Amino acid sequence: MRWLRSDGKPNFGDRIHRREGDAKLLATRPVHTTTRTETILEALEKMAKYNVRVLPVVNPANQKLEGIVTTMDFVNYLGGGDYYNIVVNRHGGELISALRKECVESIMNPNPYFVTVTDRLKTIIEKMVLNNVGVLPVVFADGTIWGIITEHDLVRHLAEKIVGKRVEDVMSKNVIYIPSSATLGDALKIMIKYGVRRLPIVEEGGRVWGMITAKDVVKFFGSHDVFRYTTTNRFEEVHEIPVKVVGTPVYYTIEPKADIGKAATLMIEKNVSSLLVVENNKLVGIVTERDILYGLATT
User: Fold this and answer.
1) What percent of the chain has pLDDT over 90?
2) Average pLDDT estimate for 65-92
3) Among residues 266, 253, 269, which one has the least CA distance to residue 200?
4) Fewer CB atoms < 10 Å away: N or C end of the chain?
5) Residue 6 domain-assigned?
6) How big is the chain by its Cα radius of gyration, in Å?
7) For residue range 219-249, what is the model confidence (pLDDT) as tens digits?
């Protein structure tokens, strides 16, 4: 990875030492959780209601961490990847059955990465970088959940107006996008195939129409909007819904030569996790909170 030293450790800059803090201080609270036995639909409803992309899975008796489930796990289950086999094999492709009769335990990660309340900023970011995760539950020594730390929290903690590093230095130049004529099923498969949570929706001719994100997918199901677009109760019909129905025409852009401090500020102000990078009205890249975080941490 471009952010690692030859010994495999992140190449942190002075900012990490100037902006110290422990996980208990940096964590977002209250943390919204789920349980092994909550249904897929109940978890989707909770994610949509609270606008979160991760739910720690806890034991309801003692609130100890037992796993984690993410928006990408749901994208996988709803048609993007191997978890969709559960829908086909156990529920015959029926929408309501797959949402109301299957439990979180079927798709959760039972061995999530986490940090303890006493872990310091350097340890937190190091664990995110080395394990390629953007969210970490925060627990006490006995495993009881305290809160959650996201890339967004850390970008907000580290951001400065001028950093001295450009967006083009940290952005992804090979933008994975989806045509505006595509379907929801296409979007789900592309997200899982390439491991991305965001897809620009591009019109014929190259104009960006908007974005579809894993959160948009969760909201579409968790808010019950999906039921307005199906009459057959079949996932095959759901997968044929146009991608523009689920996506949004709202997106934000930044120039490649802008300072990453400006990008961080814009993300925080607009409460978004990515910006499209545009030069001369042409899409040349995408920059995410993870890119900005690593850029801030190594400067």
Assistant:
1) 82
2) 98
3) 253
4) N
5) no
6) 20
7) 999 999 999 999 999 999 999 999 999 999 9
Q: Are residues 54 and 111 in the same domain?
A: yes
- CB-based contact 98:91 (threshold 8 Å): yes
DSSP 66: E
275 within domain boundaries: yes
Residues 148 and 35 in one domain: yes
- Per-residue pLDDT, averaged over 274-279, amounts to 96
158, 177, 196 — which closes off a domain?
A: 158
Tell me the mean pLDDT in the region 158-166.
Answer: 85
206: Cβ contacts below 8 Å, ≥ 6 apart: 282, 283
* Number of helices and strands in the chain (H, E): 14, 11
In which domain, by residue range, is 117 found?
Answer: 14-158
Q: Is residue 3 part of a domain?
A: no
Q: What region does 9 belong to: left with phi over 0, alpha with psi -120 to 50, or beta?
A: beta
Residue 9 in any domain: the answer is: no
Query: CA dihedral in degrees (202, 208, 209, 210; nearest 10)?
Result: 100
CA distance 243 to 260: 30
Alpha-carbon span 64 to 28, nearest angstrom: 17
pLDDT per position as a tens digit, 176-198: 999 999 999 999 999 999 999 99
Looking up tokens 């934000």, which residue turns up?
Answer: 252
The whole-angstrom distance between residue 215's C-alpha and the CA centroid of its chain comes to 7
Q: What pTM, to 2 d.p., does this model score?
A: 0.92
Residue 148 and residue 234 in one domain: no
**What single-letter amino acid sits at 96?**
I
| C-alpha span between 44 and 50 (Å, rounded) | 10
pLDDT range class, residue 160, cuts 50, 70, 90:
confident
Q: Are residues 186 and 274 in the same domain?
A: yes
Hunting for tokens 């401090």 — which residue is that?
261
